[in-house]
C-alpha cells in the first residue's frame, strides 16, 4: 500500500550544526561517499548551496535516515530517523552513487518527492530544498559541553531475538572543561535517566532532546552516579561561548571518519563470512 502525503516546506533554521544530504546507494557504498557531497559544496555560496537537513547511514535495508535536523526541510517534510530512502526526486536508490546523483540535481527552492520505506510501508513525501544560508550562526547553536560514551562494536552489532537493535543508555564519556555541563556538575560515567522529566532510554533519544533546546534553556537532568540518583540543572549556552568550537568540530570530523572505516571493515568481514559459508555449503 502506497500512501501519499503532501507537506508545505520552507527552509528553516536549525538548533545545532549542518546536516546535509549525505550520499549513499547501498550499505557498501554509503561510508565512502558522504564526504564527496560535502566537499563539492564547500566553495559554493551558502545562499545557493542546497540543504535538506538530514544525514544518512547504511543499513541492512539500504540507505537509512540517521538524523533529521529539527525544523529543517526534511523534518518539515515528515521524514523521520529510521526511514529507509527508496527514491529522491525520481531517482531510485538501488545502485551505487544514486543518492549522489539525485543530490547533485537539487537546487535551492526545488520541491521534490522523497519516497521512504517506514516499517514496511512506502510513503511519498514532498520536500522543498533549503539553503545553507538558512542555517544558524554560532550564537543560535546549543553548547552543552558533554558527549556520550561511545558504545563498543559488539553493542552496536548485537540484535534482539526479533532483529531489533538494543537501546544503548546515554552514559557520559567526556565533559568539556568550562562548559555548561561541567558547571552543573555532570561527570564522566554519569548515566542520564531523565531530561526535563522525560525518560531517556537511548543515546539517540537524549541527543535528540538536546538538539530541540535553545541557548539559555535550562535542562533538568536525573543521572545515575554509582547507583545513586542525582538531579542536576544545566543552563545551556551557545557555541559562540565555546572557546574550543573549531577544535571540537575537527575532532568530530575525525571521529566520523573512523566510524566510516569501522563500517567498511564490518562490511568486508560480512562478505568474507558469506563467501566462506558459501564454500562450506
Can you count the beta strands? 17
Cα-atom radius of gyration: 20 Å
Task: Give the overall average pLDDT.
Answer: 76
Give the helices and strands as they follow along the chain.
EHEEEHEEHEEEEEHEHEEHEEEH
Helix count, per DSSP? 7
Distance between the termini: 38 Å
Note the beta-strand portion: 25-35%
CATH architecture descriptor name of the largest domain: Roll
Sequence stretches where pLDDT stays below 50 over 5 or more residues: 1-42
CATH H-level homologous superfamily name of the largest domain: PDZ domain
Can you tell me the overall shape? globular
CATH-defined topology of the largest domain: Pdz3 Domain
Q: Mind telling me the CATH class of the largest domain? A: Mainly Beta
Describe the main β-sheet briefly.
Answer: 7 strands, mixed
